[in-house]
Amino acid sequence: xxxxxxxxxxxxxxxxxxxxxxxxxxxxxxxxxxxxxxxxxxxxxxxxxxxxxxxxxxxx
Length: 60
Description:
Layout: H1 10-39, H2 44-47, H3 56-59
């Protein structure tokens, strides 16, 4: 049998669940890292993503 044959039953469900769990875990870790990186920013644009660049015209 080839390794490309589709799996059925409980084994396939268990493997899929493990694969999804691993993907979710790595995704959450990546998002946490991104949030921490954004949280350490010292500029106003990092604090408020809707804020545009600050110019002399905007300060007045």
